[in-house]
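2024-03-11 09:14:02 DEBUG pipeline.ingest accepted 1 chain
2024-03-11 09:14:02 DEBUG pipeline.ingest length=421
2024-03-11 09:14:03 DEBUG pipeline.predict start
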Amino acid sequence: MRFYFALAVLIPLGLLTHASEAADYKYPYRDPYLATATTAILSDEGATASVTSTIIRVPGLPGRNNLPDLEGRGDVSLALYRQNRAAPLLFILAGLGSNPYFGVGPYLASLFYKQGSHVVILPSPMSWNFALSANRRGAPGYAPDDARDLYAVMQKTLTVLRDRHDMTITTINFMAVSLGGLEGAYLSVIDADEGKIGIDKYLLVNPPVDLAYAVKKIDEWNALASKFGRAKSQQIVARAVAIVDSFADVRRDNPAVFDRLAKQFAGFTTEELQFLIAENLQSQLPELVYVTQVIHDQKVLRALKHDKRKRLEEAKDFTFTDYTEKIAVPLWKKQAGSSDVDREIYIQGGSLERILARLRGNPKVQIIHNADDFMVERKSIVALKEALGEQVKLYPYGGHLGNLWYPENKEYALRYFRPRR
């Protein structure tokens, strides 16, 4: 189960940088789904063995700390990796299915902590914690507004770090992956206009260009559960979890580890890998649906309000399209005071394409993408590279975030944020 794509089929070779550079990229996996599966074991790679992260809580929105069944949970929860001296601060934002305490966020945090930065891992705006504590609408999903709420959280966080933790911060940087990359792009526009934080550099990895396309893919792959049936779907997930668990005590700083992992995941079919990717991306969706209905109760869940278990179980049937159409767009219409907005306007209004002119020429913003990222149409990657030129670093392979761990990619990111001498 491997796909070997000709590079020219994916994207015009000239857009990848120079032909020799593309040929020199030795990333080993040509199947983008298998490449993506290698991210399953990303976590704190052991660089911070002597200094664990600290959970810090930043005050949330007024009135969100006393909602029924969510009492006392209205603060924003973040992970802090603190140096014992003055240092740059890197904010890290991951995407769907992530949180500040495991996965991509801690993996990246360990790398940059080791390089000498303070690190704060932010919750995804599409997490239940952010929806409850920081999203003004109480139903995230519209990138411009989510970025605005994120900007407010970051300002509060800086106040907490300086006042309560007595931290000295020399510069402030921002790194985001996947959906976080789209939100980070909007954040760069806000900070350029307002300068309340003064972010020095942005590195945005594999951001969706057309969010509607990405959502459609996730929903299609989620629907494979019906094709497989309940028993087989559970078997696929259990098999994948067992593989990941077998790597629990292995350091993630050796490419040979990922090669062993890839060989085990190569036993899955393409559809099974697609299903597993969708399962991971929407793993926090039921909790998000539940929390939005505690805040608003739009009658989209039939179970009684205080029956948390049944409401969460019911929410598992929601897709991202369901969430958008039944929860997010109706609230957006209501709060915008307009019945003319529809799902298409909502999604396109938060696309990356909408702000390309603002990103173009901004030396603070750098984007890393993979030509075989299946969450983005190839024509969109071509358009992104043509629009932003040298601001986009394009790799030929890696799927969706599948080369974050690869030595060349790690060194590029570390070098990008390395403090100026």
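2024-03-11 09:14:41 DEBUG pipeline.report Confidence is low (pLDDT under 50) at residues 1-10.
2024-03-11 09:14:41 DEBUG pipeline.predict end
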